[in-house]
Write a structure and sequence with these properties.
Two copies of one chain form a homodimer. Chain A is α+β, with helices and mostly antiparallel strands. The first copy, chain A, has seven helices and six strands, in the order αααβααββββαβα. The first copy, chain A, folds into two domains: about 110 residues, Arc Repressor Mutant, subunit A, CATH 1.10.10.10; about 55 residues, 2-Layer Sandwich (Dna Ligase, domain 1), CATH 3.30.1490.190. In chain A, the strands form two sheets. Chain A has a three-stranded antiparallel sheet. Chain A has a three-stranded mixed sheet with strand order 5-4-6. The longest helix of chain A has 14 residues. The N and C termini of chain A lie far apart (about 50 Å). The structure holds a DNA duplex.
Chain lengths: ~160, ~160
Amino acid sequence: MILISIINLGEKMENKNFDSFIKSFTTYLKKAGLSNTIQKEAILKVLFEEAGHLNAEEIASIVKKKYKINIGIATVYRNLNFLENSNIVSAIVKDSSNTKSYEISIDGHHDHIICTKCGKVVEFFDEDIEKSQLEIAQSNGFTIESHNMTIYGICQECKGQ
Amino acid sequence: MILISIINLGEKMENKNFDSFIKSFTTYLKKAGLSNTIQKEAILKVLFEEAGHLNAEEIASIVKKKYKINIGIATVYRNLNFLENSNIVSAIVKDSSNTKSYEISIDGHHDHIICTKCGKVVEFFDEDIEKSQLEIAQSNGFTIESHNMTIYGICQECKGQ
DNA sequence: GTCCGTGCAAAACGTTTGCACGGAG
DNA sequence: CTCCGTGCAAACGTTTTGCACGGAC
């Protein structure tokens, strides 16, 4: 039941601006008996505005600089974990490092191509791959919860050099 | 050039027994100016025989118990990194923990479905997904180096409970 | 004798936890 | 007054690094 409202929140986020997103978010928190804070909002705003894939340290640093809010790294991790479990943000691991990078799920689900040279991340969504995954999981008796589809390679610019 | 011989080694490994595999491996090391050691062989043998997805600690522990070889965890990591870069072993991350598990690439490339409840790993290979990935990468100007396709879900047995 | 790979221990890294404080209801 | 979320610092688990030793050539 909680899961349903979480997923709905994720879906409702599409095509909205940040203010209305925060409104839904606060409502969601209240329903769960939790309260919104300036830190939670700042983390989300950074992910919303930077639109990149940021790790916890980067988020903390931007929050401090841009919004002059004192924020502890533990708070960032606590909130990112909460947001990830609520399907509001999603995490990817850029190869070679063991660091998780996060992005807001506002554009709906997509997968990633990452350049192993410059780190550039390109997003894509492929209906066929999604369908194949579902079939594979089903034929193996699995119910899909999530998946991670990341392609690593060299981008055009880096090939040119 | 180094990369080519590495990839060839990976391909040549299919359908061979461990002895001939080690022979190719030693040749590959010699070409690269490196030497084989009892530790390298033991790590590979464990991955070859156990056929599961083992993390560094597990590999070290099995090497010590089964082959009575003293091996330091640093050596295991050093060799696993080398083997991964040489495409001889590949790593997956079982969700929630941040630990890498390794498997030998002897059966050729495949992807994984992991049960988030019991940790069971099922391997699969899907021609259509592979093809789609190639097309997506190309249309974005990328040359694929590798990819990670992991589906997380609940397996039949865990659903039954 | 030189060099490379090792074991050990310490360090580094990303992340989580314990605790006391402060602000909201 | 209570409770929840926070900052800080310490702890944690995984992985990497520095160093000295020993064996292969």
